[in-house]
Amino acid sequence: MRAKLFFSGCALVVSCTLCLFSTVNAKTPVSPVKRVKSAPIKMKKGLKKSSLVRKYRVKRVSKRQKWPTRRPKKLKGILPKIGPAPYESGERLVFKIQMFGSHAGNVILAVGDQTEVNGRMQTPFVGFMRSSEFLNKFYPVENRLVVLADSQSLLPVKTDFFVRENGKAIDYHTKFDHKTRLLHSLKLKNGKRQKRNFTPATDIHEPLGSVYAVRRMDLKPGDQFQRYIWDGRKERLIDCKVVGFETVTTDAGVFETLKIEITTRVSGGFIKRGVLNNPIRKGTIWIANDRWRTPVKMIAPTKLGNAEAVLIRRYVEKGPVDGASGPATLGLSQ
Question: Which of 63, 110, 119, 196 lies in the 20 to 30 Å Cα band around 270?
């Protein structure tokens, strides 16, 4: 059975990846858990020979699972320097999604309060997606993505993705161990739990935190670089190129922006090898040159046609992020 993850794609649109409707195969095989024997324990005098069996303790070891990958030997370009955060705790960005010339839904991105964990500061980011009445007629969506990231590097610590689409519910939970380069994934669907792991080639980001990483980069026309992003199921190779300046007008105002062209392709993940042959996707993002480095517009191709995300409002609301641990409202249209 396949379920289309609408919001994971919306997050990718906003974060320079272009998969508004990515598919998930619920029947991907999982490698078995291997049983191994630990080293023998020295016996004390007087123990019976039959007790030799107790010398061996059987324990379960989670084996690194092997998945298809197709990666370049070396990433192109140099990642631009990441500077101070232009956003603040409590910031909310509201985007309107347009498809087929109609309002398809709204996306809100929110920044939570920093917390200190083991001597390092971590920042929560939350994204919400709710479909409009137009889209509800054939594909209702109300999804939520919660990310905890290192405040300095913006490398993810963990992500929780709650998918509510077309009457179906799937939860994806991922923990990132950057020291051992291992991602631990837990999928919950219809009361069943599926555990998987994946080994990235290098440091890997996720969609939502990448929005804020781009905002912190010192970008200029001509800059070009590659990076890997994990969307919950797939590893994607992202190629970003800053092509120039452009004036963009939205409901939120008139902005002088940097225009960034994006290409993305699947490079690995919980997939079958044939998915690596999926065509490259292209899109564009416009980042304002204001003091907040606000993303104001994004365009990307999807399986249902082109999608356009346009900023309609930016505001600051202090306090806990509504929806970080439960259903979200935050002014999303019903």
Answer: 110
